[in-house]
Amino acid sequence: MSEIGEEKIIDYIKKRFPKRNKEISKGIGDDAAVLKNGLIISTDSFYEHIHFKFKYFDMYAVGYHCLSASLSDLAAMGARPIAALISLCLTQRIMTPDIKELYRGFQTLVQRFNFDIAGGDIVQGPGFGLTITVIGQAKKPMMRSGARPGQNLYITNFLGLAETGRIVLDQGLTKKRYPDSVNKHLFPEPNFKDARIIKKFATGCIDTSDGLSTDAHHLAKESKVKIVLEGTHIPIHPEVGMLCALKKIEPIDFILSAGEDFELLFTADDLPKRLKLKIFRIGRIEKGKGVWLSYQNKITPIEQSGYDHLS
Amino acid sequence: MSEIGEEKIIDYIKKRFPKRNKEISKGIGDDAAVLKNGLIISTDSFYEHIHFKFKYFDMYAVGYHCLSASLSDLAAMGARPIAALISLCLTQRIMTPDIKELYRGFQTLVQRFNFDIAGGDIVQGPGFGLTITVIGQAKKPMMRSGARPGQNLYITNFLGLAETGRIVLDQGLTKKRYPDSVNKHLFPEPNFKDARIIKKFATGCIDTSDGLSTDAHHLAKESKVKIVLEGTHIPIHPEVGMLCALKKIEPIDFILSAGEDFELLFTADDLPKRLKLKIFRIGRIEKGKGVWLSYQNKITPIEQSGYDHLS
Q1: How is residue A146 annotated by DSSP?
Q2: d(CA B253, CA A156)
């Protein structure tokens, strides 16, 4: 599959399968499928070695991490979660206590966000993994296609923390020096809290799962606009700065390609006064296409340097 | 996972996750989750080696087979398909033409039954596989829990053909002698056609995916009834009879444990007159529990001998 990337496959599928049913409001191309009655459905797969490693994940964390990542697609659309269906791919190595720990991870989120585990499937397979389908409801979902020229681009938190945490855990760096990062990688949070506030004024929105550059590209492409990231406004968390110094990487470059923070990248015209929300304005929307970085008196085009699931 | 089976895990999950949301009409335990607005959602996973072998499946057949199997859960509830979300788990071995062939298999069914491919996910994983989530709509879904004492048990077609086909293909027997069986294994059909007719009078229904004994056990358990299978009324297809003669197996035993026919096993009081449907009456519903076989003047309890995805 190295010859073509995920996006090319999705473009091929989109072209080959035009929308047929009136019940479908928005299909392939957004964070989730949207039905006309406001029901939103999204599916994500996770496999050992690729998406998590048992070197530093226990089964509770696997359950928590994967279900949070799935729920994040609902948060990105401003939807409330109703149910999840979970398909487990098991191997002989997985024992009953493992399954119970996995479900304990799910349960923490089920109780916090009050939705149902409504079904699933259990099969044997070539490696341990799970596919989670989440179902949510939104009266007026935020879409990737809602960004308009003249708007500002915002992010709900620091970026790069999850990837910093992953590197710290994977390379055995001192965990104590990176507490926020390690926690963000193991236990990311679907940002329903901020989504409830921003959906009143945001027009375009995506969750940052593949890295700022790729996620911004998705927004730009679906909205048919140009996105200019303003380098000096992109906030650098101290832990991200520390890792980048250690690795001698430019923090901006790191953040452009670091995925899995599951924060909300959104566009809006004017922010309401006295907004009870900590957000960062990191760019602007213009007419045109592509993603550009304005930094140190230069404007350069930014390639999709984020995580491609197939590369 | 050999220590516990799929059913025990599902029972554990059901107990641990009681229904929380009013939108959920029926969750874990049936062919699919049912929302109060009549939306029905089901998910199924399929992996190479476990669910299909490239020794005799091409990619077109994989797409057709897996999507048909998934849609069958909707047919079993009398639902009309609206959309499918498809998560692909790819390996380096899978090339662009393979993906196109896979989607050509999906497309045949999309066009025949007029639903949408509304999204999905594409990841790298430990082996080739796919997880399909199907979404359907039914005003009054047929449930596993609808069987009542005094009713008859019916099946919409011969059973055992798909497993006969699988054995023929896997063991390299003469395919020409088993055309119906080979076709049934490679290209099973979701039985929407019969479902549309029987949903007017059927009360309990399940699709035969795990073998007659296991599927009858699901019906009996969810409906809290006893099912008596009448051995002499279970029809034996000539190809199934031929394979059983070759293998020296009792055809009834073979049919009890042979899965993946995706026919409709349903219960009803009185059949409408002049029913335009070829069905077989193969048993009766009584008060009590479990599944029993009435055959050669004996009534014996039947264990769940069908396919357990984890055994």
Answers
A1: G
A2: 61
Q: How many CB atoms lie within 10 A of CB A306?
A: 22
Tell me if domain A6-137 and domain A144-302 are identical in fold. Answer: no
Nearest by CB to residue A50, choosing from B30, B119, B125, is B125
- What is the topology classification, in CATH, of domain A144-302? Phosphoribosyl-aminoimidazole Synthetase; Chain A, domain 2 (3.90.650)
Give chain B's length: 311
Q: How confident is the model at residue A309 (pLDDT cuts 50, 70, 90)?
A: low
Q: Which helix (H) or strand (E) holds B217?
A: helix B212-223
B207 contacts B263 by C-beta, under 8 angstroms: yes
Counting one residue from chain A and one from chain B, the pairs whose CB atoms sit within 8 A come to 249
Mutate to test the interface with A, among B123, B218, B222, B260 (most CBs of A within 10 A): B123
Which tens digit of pLDDT belongs to each residue from A173-196?
Answer: 999 999 999 999 999 999 999 999
Report pLDDT for A22.
Answer: 77
What ipTM does the predicted assembly reach?
Answer: 0.89
Residues of chain B with pLDDT > 70, as a percent, come to 95
Q: What CA–CA distance (Å, rounded) separates A198 from A205?
A: 9
Q: Where are the alpha helices (DSSP H) in chain A?
A: 6-16, 59-76, 96-113, 161-170, 179-186, 192-198, 212-223, 238-247, 251-257
Question: Is A22 at the interface with chain B, CB within 8 A?
Answer: no
Q: What are the two backbone dihedrals, phi and then psi, of residue A122, each rounded to the nearest 5 degrees?
A: -135, 120
Per-residue model confidence as pLDDT tens digits over B88-145: 999 999 998 999 999 999 999 999 999 999 888 899 999 999 999 999 999 999 999 9
Q: Cβ distance A187 to A64 under 8 Å?
A: yes
Ranges of each domain in chain A: 6-137, 144-302
Q: Do A121 and B131 touch (CB under 8 A)?
A: yes
pLDDT tens by residue, B52-89: 999 999 999 999 999 999 999 999 999 999 999 999 99
Judge whether B167 and B258 are in contact, CB under 8 Å: no
CATH number of the structural domain B144-301: 3.90.650.10
Contact list in A for residue B119 (CB cut-off 8 A) is 27-28, 30, 32-33, 41-43
Question: How distant is the alpha carbon of residue B295 from its chain centre?
Answer: 25
Architecture of domain A6-137: 2-Layer Sandwich (3.30)
Determine which of A35, A44, A53, A121 to mutate to test the interface with B (most B C-beta atoms within 10 Å). A121
Q: What is the length of chain A?
A: 311
How confident is the model over B231-287, as pLDDT tens digits?
999 999 999 999 999 999 999 999 999 999 999 999 999 788 888 888 999 999 999
Q: Distance between CA B86 and CA B110 in Å, rounded? A: 13
Q: Within 10 Å of residue A187's Cβ, how many Cβ atoms?
A: 17
